[in-house]
Amino acid sequence: MEQNISEIRNWLGTGSINIFGLPFSGKDTVGIRLAENLGAKFLSSGIIMRTAAESDSELAKEMNAGLLATSQKFIDAVTPYLHRPELKKSALVLSSVGRWSGEELTVIDNCKSSGHPIKAVILLNISVSETKNRWFAAKTLMDRGKRVDDKDALVLDQRINEFIAKTMPVIETYQKRGLLIPIQATGEREAVYQLIVEKLAEYARSHPND
Fold first, then answer.
1. Does residue 209 fall inside a structural domain?
2. pLDDT in tens, 171-195
3. Would residue 172 count as lying in a domain?
4. Which of 99, 104, 73, 118 is nearest to 164 (CA)?
5. What is the CATH number of the domain that holds 72?
6. Angle at 30 between CA 3 and CA 178, to 5 degrees
7. Which domain holds residue 119?
8. Can you tell me the distance from the alpha carbon of 108 to that of 84, in angstroms, rounded to the nearest whole number?
9. Model confidence at 164: pLDDT above 50
10. CB count, 10 Å around CB of 181?
11. Is the residue at 120 inside a domain?
């Protein structure tokens, strides 16, 4: 794996990798580990928006209802992060940054202008039934911290519906640009991570100048 990581790191430079998937597909888990291995910075729009909600009661109400922030609020909160001076020399691993249809173009443009062009997009594929199974297990274990957006099944259904209606078009945009790497993510966590690294390394070799 170390050879693959080294190849990915050299290919990525200060670029970025964006990760998408249904709720509970493992986006943040994979993203944090990948960022650590690559010496990159991890940036989750979910974490940023939940932080923004602490000082925005309207946004907090929307998120407590299981809704994503409006596109304008997303852009206002997330885009400045991409231009932070402390990120300038680092690669970025993004977790669903720009996940509503129409937001992806702003993210693509700002990543490029900030020196972090999106060089690959990972899609963690799990079924809706697997999402619900993982939600139930997490609820039983109570291992999601303060994630109030996962508090009940109706909220989860809302998030799933939003993914299908609003995030899938975003993923299709990346697919048309030749950036998408689909990953079957229903196996053991370690096996899934190794598969991601292998596929990323293969992609890097086949896109040396991207």
1. no
2. 999 999 999 999 999 989 999 999 9
3. yes
4. 99
5. 3.40.50.300
6. 75
7. 2-203
8. 16
9. yes
10. 17
11. yes
